[in-house]
Amino acid sequence: IPLLWSILSAIPPLLPELKQNYIDGLVYDLALMLRAYSSAPAQSSDVVIIGIDEDSLADHRTELNAEIFGAQKTLTLSQMPRSLMHPVWAELSKSLLDQNGINARRLGFDMFFVWQPASLVGGKYEQAFNRQLLQKRDQIFLARGKHKLMPLYENVLHQNLGSTALPIDPDGITRRIPRYPETMSEGALLPSLPALISGYCHPKNNPDCNRIPKEFLLTPRNSITEIPSFRLIDILKCLKTDDGVKSLSEIFQDKIVLVGTTWPGEDIKETPDRFLPRRDYQSSRLHGCEFKSPLS
Fold first, then answer.
1. What is the b/e burial string over 72-101, where b = at least 16 CB atoms within 10 angstroms of the residue's CB?
2. How many other C-beta atoms lie within 10 A of the C-beta of residue 238?
3. What is the value of pTM for the model shown?
4. DSSP designation for 192
């Protein structure tokens, strides 16, 4: 039994050419589970998730200050459709990447900015977010799917776009991350969003992404639920006070922050961590801020 355990635990690093069938996928996932039980816990995560969950979008109590049409306005998340949340993303980007404050390392938006608010409201609605993108183009990255994004993002910030078209194995599990999942319509290669936001595929320092294999397998040591995850509304509440900013600095400083939806059926995919122990989430408090997980 100990010998069998050791052999199975060693399988994940030895399967770079894993065949795409149900049996190989099952063996691979079980091997990851055995390795997780037989090895030391993984180090703390470099990634922090901000989840756009249903509770956040329905919040009508927390008043937020945001720049709309060049002026500061007060509003709640329940007053804004998801496709019109550019002012919220502008404030979030500015706060998280402030070098004198929270000082996150990089920020990725796992959502598609396809619809252009300017077509309805005269071009100024999303200007605060666009300004953040242009000023911090070395730190902010956007997801790109099958359809083109807004012209500014597609034409000017194309080096900041990462593909989310990740392959799915026959059993419905996402195990492989290609360096270049797809090619844009004009023929340019588009790196995956994980490759781009990791920093190993930087548009300036490493435009060819040669520090990343052509394709690699996910080999998690812990369940994906172990990645620190916070509800959007809790983060926005914390940004309203100095103590809140202090608590967020302790969480996000020098971290890669990924913003995206987190409810089943929309943006959650099965990965090879399916047999690993799942975390039982508890709410927590830090410097007066209360945090709940969008994955609970």
1. eeeeebeebeeebbbbbbbbbbbbbbeeeb
2. 24
3. 0.85
4. B
